[in-house]
């Protein structure tokens, strides 16, 4: 098995899995799982091990242990799923068997939640691109590009007309 086919690579892939995915937590690991609708086969995984876990040696050891545990879980995941496993502080002190139990429990729970969402018709990763684009545009302030906005305006009216109307409605305005 080549591991590179099963890796999350871009920040956007990590962001989609963590924001849109089903979340399941255990005491030392949090799993986020989203089922893609883009038609790509096979599950993909990414690991997040922050500096709170330890120095680089400890973080890399934790990532290697998580990767080894996840290797046996690939076949049990839904086809076309993205998974982000986030390590929490204290994970480095767990014995391998306890860590394996936590990861498997979190994965089962997240997979069950993700399948329930997809059965209920909740939007998943592939169908939310338009929503994400509009959200991104509204956050960055590009939604009304090309016009100044000082508040809500009526459809079809310019900002200047809205300001004049607002000034005329204020008490004491002549």
How would you describe the overall organization of this protein?
- Strands 1-2-4-3 form a 4-stranded mixed sheet, with helices on both faces.
- It has 5 helices and 4 strands.
- The model is unreliable at 124-156 (pLDDT under 50).
- The protein has a domain at 22-122: Ribosomal Protein S5, domain 2.
- With 174 residues, the chain is an alpha+beta fold.
- A hairpin with a 3-residue loop joins strand 1 and strand 2.
- It is elongated.
- Its EC number is 3.1.26.5.
- Residues 119-141, 150-161 have a biased composition (Polar residues).
- Consists of a catalytic RNA component (M1 or rnpB) and a protein subunit.
Overview in brief:
By secondary structure, the protein is an alpha+beta fold.
Q: Which secondary structure elements does this structure contain, and how are they paired or packed?
A:
Blueprint: H1 11-20, E1 22-25, E2 29-35, E3 44-49, H2 56-73, E4 81-87, H3 96-120, H4 129-140, H5 159-169
Parallel strand pairs: 3-4
Antiparallel strand pairs: 1-2, 2-4
Subunit structure: Consists of a catalytic RNA component (M1 or rnpB) and a protein subunit.
Protein name: Ribonuclease P protein component
Region (Disordered): 107-174
